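Practice problem: Undecaprenyl-phosphate galactose phosphotransferase
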Amino acid sequence: MINVILRQRNWAVKLNYYLSPGILVVTDYLAVCLGIYTSIFFRDAIVAFCGMDSNVLTIKDIHLYFVLPIIYIGFIAYADMYRRRMMFYQFAGSLFRISTYVSIMIIFIGYLINIAEPISRVFMVLFWLVSFLLISLERFWTKKLLVKFGMWQWPVIIVGAGKTAEILAAAFEEDKSVGYKIVGFIEDEKDRPLLAKYQHLGEFDQAEEIIKAADVQDVILATPGLKREELVQLFYRIQPYVRNLTIVPDVFGVPIGNIKTEVLFNEQALLINTCNNLNRKSNQVLKRLFDIVVGSVVFICILPILMILTILIKLDSKGSPFHIAQRIGKNGELFYCYKFRTMYENSDVILEKFFQTNPQYKEEWEKFAKLRTVDPRVTRVGKCLRRYSLDELPQIVNVLMGSMGLVGPRPYLPREKEKIGHYMHVICMTVPGITGLWQVSGRNEISFEGRLKLDSWYVRNWSLWQDIVLLFKTIGVVLKRKGAY
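Answer key — C-alpha cells:
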C-alpha cells in the first residue's frame, strides 16, 4: 500500500490556479494607478517649490486608466511573474528592471505618436521609482494575505529528502510567499530527518504512482547525488504526469548568482555560463559610486549618534573612544579600520587570565574567534554597542575613504591570514564591508570556516541589487539582535 495523501479536490486547486494570479493582476493595476496619482502630486509640488513650471500636470483618462497600467501589467505578465515562484527579493529585483523598461517604453511611445512635449521628466523619474515601490509593497502584503487564506500555495512534491531537500524546505518555510506548500517527500532512505516533519510518500520506484494519486502538478527533483543515468530515467518517468518539473543540479559552490544558460539542441547539452562581475571596471566604478552616495547620506544622518556614543564611551572607561586596528583589505593590503572601543584597554591581559581560570572557553575562542557566552574584556557600554552593532558605525569613515564598502566580505585581522588560506585570493578581490552576507546569515553564530565560504560566495556572485538587499536585511538582523555578542 503506497503511503500517499488524499487527492486534493480538483476544483479547489484549479480555482486557486486562476484566482490568485487574477487577484494579483487587480492589485497591480490599482498600485500602478496609485503610482500615477502619487507621481503627479509630487511632481506638481516639486516644480511649484522650485519655480520650474506653474502648469499642473494632467494625464488623459485613457492613459491613466488604460495605457500605462496595461503596459506595466504586460511587462510583468511577459516575465511570468503572475505564476512564477520567486523569493520576494528576487521579485523586487526583476520588478526594478521592469520599471525601467516601462519608463523607456512610455517615453518611446510618446515620441512615436508625437506627444513627447507634454511628458514631464520629473513625472517620469517619480513614476519609475514610486510605481516600483508601490507594486513591491502591494505584492508583499497581497501574497501574505493570500497565503493566510490558503491561496497562492501550489502543492509540490519533492523527490529526495537529503541535504539539498533540507535547504529547499527551509527556504519555503522562511518565505511562505514563494507559494510552495510541501505535500511530502519521495525518498528511499526512511531515516532522513525531513521525514520526521513531513509525510513520507514512498520510494523512488513508486514515483509515478504517487504523483498520479496525489494529483500534484509541481515536482522538484532534489537528488543531485543520483548517477546521471538514474536521474535522467527518473526525470522521464515523472515528466508526463506533471505540469512543472524542476531539477536541482549539483552545482553547489559554483557562483550561480549571475548564471546564464545556453542549449545545444543537436548535442542535447546544457551550457552553464558564469562571469566574475567584480572583474569588470564598470561594476567596480558602480559599486564605488553607490558607496559614496549612500555612505554620504548615512554619515550625515548618524553624525549626532556618533558624537553621543563617543561621549558615553569616554565616560564609561579610560582610553580612547575609538579602536583603530589594521585589517586585511583589497588585494591583501592592510588598512586602518575604525570602530568604537568596546573593551578595556588591557583586554589581552584580561583574556589571558580568563583562559587560565576558565580553560573551557578556549575551544569556543578557537572555533568562532569570539567569546559568545561571556567576555570579561567588554565594557558596560561596549555590551550595548555590540548588541546593536553600533560599534561598527565609525566604519562609515572607511567607506568614504574607499578602504571599505557598505557591503562586502568581513574585514579580517592580519593574524587570520593563514586561517583564510585559499579563500584569500577571492575575498581580497574587493574591499571589506560594514555588513555582508555572513552578517545576515547568522553573524557570530557561524564558524570561521562558514564565514569564509559566505564571503567567497558573495564576491563571486556580486551585483548591485544584492548589495541593496543585504543592506535592508542587515537592518532586520540588527533590530532582532540575531547572532550579536
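Discussion: The first strand starts at residue 154 and ends at 159. Students who identified this feature from the C-alpha cells alone can consider the problem solved.
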